[in-house]
Amino acid sequence: MRDIIHLQCGNCKRKNYTTTKNKKTQQGKLEVKKYCPFCRSHQVHKEVK
């Protein structure tokens, strides 16, 4: 039931992380504040396909 999703940096638009998400229990796009090694700071990462 869990699908693999990619997280993209909101600042530099690079795909840095992958994670899993249960689409039945969590509707909508995931947003997490994580460290971006390219920006060298914590940025908001959003779910992309």
Helix content: under 10%
Main sheet overview? 4 strands, antiparallel
Mean pLDDT: 95
How many structural domains can be distinguished in the coordinates? 1
> What's the helix count?
0
| CATH superfamily membership | Ribosomal protein L33
CA-atom Rg in angstroms: 11 Å
Order of SSEs, N→C?
EEEE
Shape: elongated
Major sheet: order of its strands?
Answer: 2-1-4-3
Strand percent estimate: over 45%
Based on the structure given, which CATH architecture is correct? Answer: Single Sheet
Q: Regions with pLDDT < 50 over 5+ consecutive residues?
A: none
What is the CATH T-level topology?
Answer: Rubrerythrin, domain 2
Structural class comes to mainly beta
Q: Total number of β-strand segments?
A: 4
User: What is the straight-line distance between the termini?
Assistant: 16 Å
Overall CATH class: Mainly Beta
